[in-house]
Design brief:
The chain has 140 residues and is of the alpha/beta class. The protein has one domain: Glycosidases (TIM Barrel, Alpha-Beta Barrel), CATH 3.20.20. 23% of the residues lie in helices and 14% in strands. It has a 4-stranded mixed beta sheet with strand order 1-2-3-4. Strand 2, helix 3 and strand 3 form a beta-alpha-beta unit. The chain is globular and about 55 Å long.
Length: 140
Amino acid sequence: MEQYQSMEGFGFALTGGSAQLLMKMSAPQRTALLRELFAPGGDGIHVSYLRVSIGSSDMNDHAFSYDDVAVGQTDPQLAKFNLGPDRDTVVPVLKEILTLNPHIMILGSPWSAPAWMKTNDNLKGGNSGLSFTRPMLVIS
């Protein structure tokens, strides 16, 4: 048999919306589900890659970045940097996933630059004037 490519693993996205729903589950239910998805071995599916939005995505209940400031203001020193709603949803779920599988590959991907970095001063539309082919952060 000819081999054309190899696969390192499979995964999906952990969005703010899915993290919100996971945090509404009881701790034992959430742990059981995460174990089924991420824990190596056993009867689970052993997800090996996880994409996480840096700031909100289209699956959040509202748009935000980790460095929001009032319209017309800028924050080049990132003095206002804050994980915002993700501190109470995405971060705890990620910590639990990492406890179950410390070797999972995590791809951090921003949905939008902060509004103050964009041409239209808005999280939606506009552009940052930067040219990235694939802005991302991979943690392994």
